[in-house]
């Protein structure tokens, strides 16, 4: 790997996908619309038309009413708005492997997951079925950011609704990578983040189920934008880019999933003989994601070695990448000390076979150079 | 504005993104797209460094330190975070004070943030302004007789461009022991802003008001003495826990570039823009008659005119000049039919306020634009007057305010 420093291979799509050309084009086009979408003059109306077209397009893709598509600054804001906006008077229940944006939005009960990382339906039912308790707002992610594990959201939704609970789904990692819509999930709300499916950073959306306009307690009080549910001038170019990215991602979704799945499996087939354990391997997973646990080698050490070899991967979510705390996701899956020894490889839409083969070589070289330290893992 | 016959005179609603800003942002969309919080790899670190560089540029425009800048999705979020965040933190600490003060002419997101705090046990106090739009220091001093948690005063008004004398008002707030927040969304880049000279504890800015991209803003949070905030929302813990969520790195880098350009070119630009504005006013006065400017001309943003043409309802006039982009007030509420609450707070009656027009020139306005816009306006005013578009002196005013 003597030339490693000359090039860098990005395999951290779950932190942020590279922008799609369609998104870039839509964004630069929208940036030409100078007006504020709330202004009534011609420039404002042109911006408004772009904004509302974007809203209708995104709403159509995910099967909601356009008026129930609320644009936000990103996935965190969308998740928090869903929970604080719908959660009053409800018991909040949050999956153990949820993103911190959801876990910290409101104090709530934790729904355990199985060893595969899938929400434990029986445990959820016990939490929901407490006699006389207030109705719940259940928060479950469609696909996990660290392991790619996909939850059986439809079954969870039925369970929730049988107990008068609302279901909020964090679909930030799933959107664009698997096909779904509101009715198929049976959810009451869905959070999206543009830059996780090839749109620009700075735009997200909260989608609400229902045939009629749904009010929501706003997080940001302001000028009455988004029908009073989210104040602030909408980031029109970023929003237009997000919607174009969603369209492009879903147009290529099945082909891409097949392609990425083959490449991901190639990595796993190469890594497991070297001692790696694939976290959540028995569950349905996103095709682009693998979480490789290497007993006895700290994640941080692995990342440094791979970074020096020119490969960008991560341990856990990017938000907490700067921290040393081990993954709460893997902890919840019962991996114990091993939770500190796993790295996430997430293939971007633009990844090539050569990228993957290069990574496999770098991974093997890393394993050879990093002897397992018996003290590190049980 | 490029192309078409449209003349953009609404620089206070939003500004076009400067092409130089666009050019600086683009590589961070296409080539260096990593998550700025992915410090574990080289790509993430490169983006992180660029974000920190932009943070320093934003800080420099405000006279702050880089570590005093918290990035947000815009000024609305920054205003919400400043006002609710600071007050909630103090309340949670057991502070006995309840009063929160702001002005009747503030942006809606400030007024709503202050009013929202009433449901959390606070006492919102909305101060009147003088007919020229400025706050009477004695009025503020009297309001501060009751122990106060926070005062929020905008530096420049979004409808009238009227500047408040923050440097003169700040000592009153300081002496009373309250925190001082200022919404600088309209002022930053347009007047010399200095958070130290103005003795601010908190200050909000927005990129798209100073030729940067939409979707990003910042809150200045003073460090010495340190101002503490309860975050509006938690999550990944970015921005030292004050504002979670992936930072929109390209937008932030564009924001930094816009601040750098404002700092380098602001003074010259202001002189040019004030010249255009004055030329516009002179042309309107020469061509129309019955022109009344709202708020004083000195102590006003260089590009702003807020005025009325006697006897001509603003909505009728706007409908008569489809080739001009101007507004009756704040863009957020410009679809409202009620007259501007900013103008009624300055003592205009409903009928006069319904004649109020906001006109703001900016970076891409040419002298020819000004001449043409003035001619178009004067013709339309004459037409409206001939058709008897006289403001009804009944109705509508009850909704204002």
UniProtKB/TrEMBL annotation, chain A:
Q: Name one Pfam family in it.
A: Aminotran_5
Q: Iron-sulfur among the record's keywords? A: yes
List, alphabetically, the SUPFAM superfamilies matched: PLP-dependent transferases (SSF53383)
Q: Which GO terms describe its molecular function?
A: cysteine desulfurase activity; iron-sulfur cluster binding; metal ion binding
**Family to which this protein belongs:** Belongs to the class-V pyridoxal-phosphate-dependent aminotransferase family. NifS/IscS subfamily.
This chain belongs to which protein, by name? Cysteine desulfurase
Q: Name the cofactor(s).
A: pyridoxal 5'-phosphate
Its annotated function is as follows:
Catalyzes the removal of elemental sulfur atoms from cysteine to produce alanine. Seems to participate in the biosynthesis of the nitrogenase metalloclusters by providing the inorganic sulfur required for the Fe-S core formation.
- Entries under InterPro entries matching the protein: Aminotrans_V_dom, Cysteine_dSase, PyrdxlP-dep_Trfase, PyrdxlP-dep_Trfase_major, PyrdxlP-dep_Trfase_small
Provide this UniProt record's keywords sorted from A to Z: Iron, Iron-sulfur, Metal-binding, Pyridoxal phosphate, Transferase
| Tree of life domain | Bacteria
Keyword Transferase carried by entry: yes
**Reaction(s) catalysed (UniProt annotation):** (sulfur carrier)-H + L-cysteine = (sulfur carrier)-SH + L-alanine
UniProtKB/TrEMBL annotation, chain B:
- Hey, what's the signal peptide range on this chain? none
Q: Which Pfam families match?
A: Aminotran_5
Catalysed reactions, as listed in the record: (sulfur carrier)-H + L-cysteine = (sulfur carrier)-SH + L-alanine
Q: Per its Swiss-Prot or TrEMBL entry, what cofactor is needed?
A: pyridoxal 5'-phosphate
Which Enzyme Commission number(s) are on file for it? 2.8.1.7
User: What is the uppermost EC class here?
Assistant: transferase
Entry-linked Gene3D superfamilies: Aspartate Aminotransferase, domain 1, Type I PLP-dependent aspartate aminotransferase-like (Major domain)
Q: Which UniProt keywords apply?
A: 2Fe-2S, Aminotransferase, Iron, Iron-sulfur, Metal-binding, Pyridoxal phosphate, Transferase
The coiled-coil segments of this chain are none
Q: Name one GO molecular function term.
A: cysteine desulfurase activity
Database matches in PANTHER family: CYSTEINE DESULFURASE, CYSTEINE DESULFURYLASE FAMILY MEMBER
Q: What does this protein do?
A: Catalyzes the removal of elemental sulfur atoms from cysteine to produce alanine. Seems to participate in the biosynthesis of the nitrogenase metalloclusters by providing the inorganic sulfur required for the Fe-S core formation.
Family under the similarity heading: Belongs to the class-V pyridoxal-phosphate-dependent aminotransferase family. NifS/IscS subfamily.
This protein's name: Cysteine desulfurase
Species of provenance: Komagataeibacter rhaeticus
